[in-house]
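Researcher: I'm preparing a figure for a lab meeting and need a structural model of a single chain. I don't have an experimental structure, so a prediction will have to do for now. The sequence is pasted below. Please return the structure as tokens so I can convert it later.
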Amino acid sequence: MKILDTGKWGPDHWNIFRERLEKTYIWPALYVFKFIVPAPQSEAVKVLFPMHQPEEKASGKGNYTSLTYRMMMPGSDAIIEVYQRVKNIEGLIAL
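Model: Understood. Here is the structure written out token by token.
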């Protein structure tokens, strides 16, 4: 499991990530996005994906929420676009 701190990524990081995706997947492919956010921020993630229902799990104390999305993606650029959309949500951790 790798934490993606996409909020601080520059163009080189995105290019390396794109290359890894291209080597790993045959498109279109099912891709799993997992986000952990402070509980009040879970809605900020959900509104970005109105056509998808996440698997949702609260942390033991209820302070954080894990959101898992399984989406059929057409290519690496679409995956990067998802990470670009969520990168400014405060407290979000992408796994």
